[in-house]
Write a structure and sequence with these properties.
heterodimer, A: mainly alpha, about 0% strand, globular, B: alpha+beta, FAD/NAD(P)-binding domain, 2 domains, seven-stranded mixed beta sheet, 11 helices, about 25% helix
């Protein structure tokens, strides 16, 4: 088993890959929307999908994992640094979205791959599920929180992916095995009814 | 530079929900020209709302960007909004009425002050506000929840979760019913029925929840009501040797060097609890008694989460709730406490987590299985707003240290309880927490946690109504005692803040003011 210390030591110079608290709000300092150079840092979908196979529920199936991975990359590609955030209730502070974590997450995916090559002489995507899981657990070893963070605040791309998926209506449906379809347009007349059960592997409405 | 002069019959300062109510009533009933002056911008059109909601859900972005003025950051303000539609572009659309005791606090409960009107005086205007906005509601027990006529729309149905929770609170002996809301249970006034998108706050993507832009769209397409946006009224000025207001001095944010003067027969200040007293203080008006800016009011809350042995499905309609007004009526103790009670479905303590009980990090299937195990039971969110008697020194003043871009001092707010509320606060909150405990016990559940907010919600006051100039800035109609043609409408005129959401009452008061303002103009043939 890899130790967290070993893993971080190996990561060496890519300290940015662990940008704790990187999503600190920009406060009153206005920045132009979309100015961040990280904006175009599209994630490596192949590596992300192999990561997703380790951190997402197997009930999603291969197609579901691939679909969620695509949805995650599309989501972070749509992030806009500097966009005005919703007003915090009870506060007069106006806040803007901080720098995108996409660049940091891209570096973290690359780091997983480099470490796989160091350890197994093969890229991350070629490793078995157990081997990938071991590397991911080592990367997340320092996570002390019990709570799912906001995906944008996650310290590691693996955690961001987990948090993002488990916050979706699809994940709720999967958990309850019922068509709750949270935050989606649903007839008011159906509100008093117990949500319909989901049969088989489907999870109802899905992320992109 | 000479000023651009605009003449009208009625000048309304501000375009929030109370302005919309007043303008609509005047336009419906009177032969009158109305000019609405709004410092902020128009908000995005309805066809953009689904996209804006998506950005809110995905990234936490504000669906109402630029709904504020950068140079109007104020110390002590609760929520910041200055745009067409005002703060009600963000509101939750929850519309309880106050109880009769709220208007007779001194007489019926021995604390605070009586209003110069009774619940019965306001009942027809409550009804009118409910009909104009479209309130879906359920009549509570008549002795607890009196009203003159039925709600204009059928109640919002209780979700499966709320039905289960209704069974729980009924077993505890508390009558609760569907929270009245301006969310269409059926299509109404060209707006569609609610379809549980469940983002009422901050945005209903289909306009099933009432927001003032709906009224402004209709009014601005007609000929009676004109709106001047991006124009800040800086002063109201009386005619020389007269108490009558003659002109509103304003400045366009697009052409700041070109003053704008609005001349009108009647002036209506509809800037909410912050900007209404602020404008009067800047103008040096209506303040011989020194009451402008005083008696800011509102209510605090105690909230909690109760774990119950009931299978719930969080997400069916999270923003709808049960409500009870049982505790808003005469206090049940020797000491003073009145509060509402609301119950929602909740996912608190039932969400996915990263570590199991053995503190081991989980991934994938382990997270899902752990989550499933913990969702065999449910959580209810409970909350009670409790009434606060405001001190005279609960006040808005001009802030000498903070000015806007034009050099005008900004308002500064400081909230203070009257002695009775200050002394009883701890005891009042304990009574509410004890109620939560008894509720939990009745359902074989447990209170997970409780919290008390320090800020006052649904703020109001600052231009309170009174019987005469020694007790109020305005009379019961909102007319300034010192200025025959100056009205303040809505939230600022309230004497006290009750223990329920205030917006419907703000609107009812504004409609009552509009009725009085309208008497200055000929009636339309109906």
């Amino acid at each position: 088993m890899l130790s967290r210390r070993t893993f971080v030591s190996w990561l060496g110079g890519i300290g940015a890959a662990f940008g704790i608290g990187a999503r600190a709000r920009t406060g009153d300092a206005r920045v132009a929307i979309g100015e961040s150079p990280e904006q175009a840092a599209t994630l490596d979908l192949a590596t992300l999908t192999r990561l997703a196979e380790v951190v997402l529920p197997t009930e999603l199936g291969d197609a579901g994992v691939a679909r969620v991975s695509r949805g995650f990359t599309q989501w972070i590609d749509g992030y806009r640094q500097g966009a005005e955030l919703v007003h915090p209730y009870g506060s007069s502070n106006i806040q803007q979205a901080a720098a995108s974590p996409a660049g940091r997450w891209r570096d973290q995916l690359a780091a997983l791959d480099r470490y796989a090559r160091e350890l197994h002489q093969r890229g991350f995507n070629s490793l078995t599920r157990d081997q990938r899981r071991e590397i991911v657990l080592a990367a997340l070893g320092a996570e002390r929180t019990n709570r799912m963070p906001d995906a944008l605040d996650a310290n590691h791309v693996a955690l961001a992916l987990v948090s993002w998926f488990f916050a979706t209506p699809e994940a709720s449906n999967l958990c309850y095995q019922s068509r709750i379809d949270r935050n989606q347009c649903r007839p008011l007349v159906n509100a008093p009814r117990q949500p319909l059960p989901i049969r088989g592997r489907g999870t109802g409405d899905r992320v992109q | 530079m000479s000023a651009r002069v605009i003449e009208t019959d009625v000048c309304i300062v501000g375009s929030g929900i109370t302005a919309a109510m007043a303008a609509e009533k005047l336009a419906d009933e009177r032969n009158v020209r109305v000019l609405v002056v709004e410092a902020g911008d128009d908000m995005p059109p309805v066809q953009d709302w689904y996209r804006l909601r998506r950005r809110f859900l995905d990234y936490g972005e504000s669906p109402w960007p630029a709904d504020h003025l950068d140079d109007a950051s104020v110390e002590g303000i609760q929520s910041r909004s200055m745009c067409v539609g005002g703060l009600a572009m963000h509101w939750g659309g929850v519309t309880p009425r106050f109880s009769p005791e709220d208007f007779q606090l001194k007489s019926s409960c021995g604390v605070g002050d009586d209003w110069p009107i009774t619940y019965e005086d306001l009942d027809p205007f409550y009804q009118e506000a409910e009909e104009r906005m479209g309130v879906s509601g359920e009549q509570g027990p008549a002795d607890i929840d009196p009203r003159g006529k039925p709600f204009p729309l059928p109640k919002l149905p209780l979700s499966y979760n709320l039905e289960k929770l209704h069974g729980w609170v009924s077993a505890a002996g508390i009558p609760m019913w569907s929270q009245p809301s301006t969310k269409n249970s059926v299509p109404y006034k060209g707006r569609s029925a609610c379809c549980r998108n469940d983002t009422c706050t901050p945005i209903c993507p289909i306009g099933a929840k009432y927001s003032p832009d709906a009224t402004w769209r209709t009014l601005r397409s007609g000929k009676q009501v004109t709106m001047l946006t991006r124009t800040l009224v800086r002063r109201l000025v009386p005619a020389a040797g007269s108490d009558r207001i003659e002109v509103a001095q304003a400045v366009s944010r697009d052409r700041p060097n070109e003053p704008v003067e609005i001349r009108a027969r009647m002036f209506v200040v509809a800037g909410g609890y912050v900007w209404s007293p602020h404008l009067l203080l800047l103008s040096g008006l209506a303040n011989r008694s020194g009451l402008v800016g005083k008696y800011l009011t509102g209510h605090r809350n105690v909230s909690g989460f109760v774990s119950l042995p009931i299978k719930l499905y969080p997400g069916l309609n999270e923003q709808h709730s049960l409500v009870s007004k049982q505790f808003m009526r005469k206090p049940r103790y020797d000491r003073y406490v009145r509060h509402d009670l609301r119950v929602w479905e909740s996912a608190v303590d039932k969400g996915p987590r990263l570590r199991n009980d053995a503190n081991e990090l989980m991934l994938g299937d382990a997270i899902l299985n752990d989550w499933r195990q913990r969702t065999q039971t449910g959580t209810a969110r409970v909350r009670a707003y409790y009434d606060i008697v405001p001190a005279r020194e609960s006040e808005l003043t001009l802030d000498s240290a903070r000015k806007n871009a034009l050099g005008d001092p900004l308002p500064k707010l400081a909230w203070r309880d009257a002695e009775v509320s200050r002394d009883l606060r701890g005891w009042q909150e304990e009574q509410i927490k004890a109620l939560f405990e008894s509720l939990a016990k009745a359902g074989n559940g447990r209170v997970i946690r409780t919290a008390s907010d320090s800020f006052q919600d649904h703020p109001a006051g600052g231009c309170r109504m009174g019987k005469d100039a020694s007790t109020g800035v305005v009379d019961s109609w909102g007319r300034a005692f010192e200025h025959q043609n100056l009205f303040v409408v809505g939230a600022p005129t309230m004497v006290s803040g009750s223990c329920a959401n205030g917006t419907l009452t703000f609107c009812a008061l504004s409609l009552r003011s509009a009725q009085e303002i309208g008497k200055e103009f000929s009636a339309k043939r109906m």
